[in-house]
Amino acid sequence: MAEVIKMPRMSDTMTEGVIVEWHKKVGDKVKPGDLLAEVETDKATMELESYQDGTILYIGVDKGKSVKVDDLIAVIGKPGEDYKAVIGDAPASNAPAATQAPQAAAPTQAPAPAAAQAPSVTPEQLGVTVIRMPLLSDTMTEGKIVQWNKKVGDKVKSDDSLADVETDKATMEVVGYADGTLLYAGVPAGEAAKVNDVIAIVGKAGTDVSGLVQSLKNPQTAAANAQPAAASSNVAAPVEAPQQNFEAPGGGNGRIKASPLAKRLAADKGVDLKLVQGSGDGGRIVKKDVDNFVPAARTAPAAASTAASPAAKPVQPFVAAPGTEGYTDHSLSQIRKTIARRLSESKFSAPHFYLTMEINMDNAIASRTQMNEVSPVKISFNDMVVKAAAMALRQHPAVNSSWMNDSIRQWHHIHIGIAVAIDEGLIVPVVRFADQKSLSQIAAESKELSGKARNKKLQPNEFSGNTFTISNLGMMDIDEFTAIINPPDSAIMAVGRIKEVVVKKGDGFGVTNVMKITLSCDHRSVDGAVGSAFLQTFKKYLENPVTMLV
């Protein structure tokens, strides 16, 4: 009997998911463990695997469309099996025409009845795949085509990258979804398209898609003029694919495999990606490859310049150039817009107040040296801060809370978020149950999470669920700063550098290592006395690290 595949709940806050890409088509055979689709949740993009043996009979959700948790998205069964009873009363129009279960008589029955009800040309009639701007994040309303990786007339495979799309979260690739030829590219590079707008069409070389493009752009007009449109379906396409069948630089089978970030960085630096050796999967070029690239050819001119330097001794007299005023407006990336919006919402909705404390770090420095002699991983000062904060939160649960509008929710678990700076902005991986972990466990997990964050490999459970956040700028020689609360937390701790100061010791003076920390609190859920008591406990642990080990 045919089995229904429903949208699973992939995170604790997920209410719906977006089908970013289908990896199987109607008629494909699948077995348990096969990748069916990629699903964008409220946290990340995840893979949806099959748990059944059989054949894909029905796909009910188009690429880029949103589906609520537990809604039907596909049906798996035996070839030719009747699946209509399984999907119930779900209207056929909810599924894309190209993903309906194949029927033997469908191609011969379509022309006469369909012309009166549908647009004059459909993707199914032409045997083409329409690619729309996918919904790549829960807040995305439009995407900008950063660059096209294929041109009209190029042959593409289902997993080939057609274009790089910048969303409000990151720059991502849009793939072909089907084998064929790129027949239509509807959005120029540098321009934006709304979610679900048609951006490309892939099909058999030479297929006339002009009528289909018109139908998709003006569905009501096309439906009203269905018969005339059908009569003119044989008119030559304005863009004849074979006439533009040329290879783009790095295109076709020789297309350079590089992440969108690596491509952008290479363009900024003027680096030819053909000269860069990729270290990613399958030789894919990633950011660090571009960062570490040094052109070998530049050493020769340098030597020549050195040899010629004695002849260049005369120094030109300094001529003061007149000052010129000017400025450059840099367009906002989607991720920068999102950061601005979210931080503004936090700053102006949560009434912040700040508590700053100075902590003597002499004992912490000595203890860290001793612990690193026996620890399997190197323990950092930030690891000690995480541990001390987690233990202090256990004694002051009011700080480990969230404002829920009509209630204050105190969390029974302690999950510490650690702010990590990446090229695109800021992300907060989470050390879960931090109060129950040893310093070496926290150190190992923090290093692993930070590495995943910088390489964009974090899973949803690794950057969600924080109940308290720590932001450390000590490594940047910052003495102290105030941080904006990371929702839904009620507080965030800003950590400055450790520095030597002269203090009075007995009858004389001595040098002490101190560190300043500032606690930003949401006054709706945390009062000043509560935050102060928390900091007193935190200070006790950090100034006497042995108390964190018992």
Keywords for this structure?
single chain; 550 residues; alpha+beta; OB fold (Dihydrolipoamide Acetyltransferase, E2P); Dihydrolipoamide Transferase; 4 domains; six-stranded mixed sheet; 26 strands
Overall description:
With 550 residues, the protein is an alpha+beta fold. The protein has four domains: 1-102, Beta Barrel (OB fold (Dihydrolipoamide Acetyltransferase, E2P)); 109-254, OB fold (Dihydrolipoamide Acetyltransferase, E2P) (Beta Barrel); 256-287, E3-binding domain (Dihydrolipoamide Transferase, Irregular); 348-548, Chloramphenicol acetyltransferase-like domain (Chloramphenicol Acetyltransferase, 2-Layer Sandwich). Helix content is 25%, strand content 25%. A six-stranded mixed beta sheet has the order 17-26-25-24-20-23. Strands 1-8-6-3 form a four-stranded antiparallel beta sheet, with no helix packed on it. Strand 4 and strand 5 (45-49) form a beta hairpin. Helix 13 crosses helix 14 (439-454) and helix 13 (381-395) packs across helix 15.
- Give the CATH superfamily of the largest domain: Chloramphenicol acetyltransferase-like domain
Number of strands: 26
Write down the CATH topology of the largest domain.
Chloramphenicol Acetyltransferase
Number of helices: 15
Give the overall form: globular
In total, how many domains does the architecture comprise?
4
Distance between the termini: 59 Å
CATH architecture level-2 label of the largest domain:
2-Layer Sandwich
CATH class of the largest domain: Alpha Beta
- The largest beta-sheet arranges its strands as 17-26-25-24-20-23
Largest sheet: 6 strands, mixed
Mean pLDDT: 81
Percentage of β-strand residues:
25-35%
* Percentage of residues in helical conformation: 25-40%
Q: Give the low-confidence spans.
A: 89-98, 101-119, 226-253, 297-309
Structural class: alpha+beta
The radius of gyration computed from the alpha-carbon positions, rounded to a whole number of angstroms, is: 30 Å
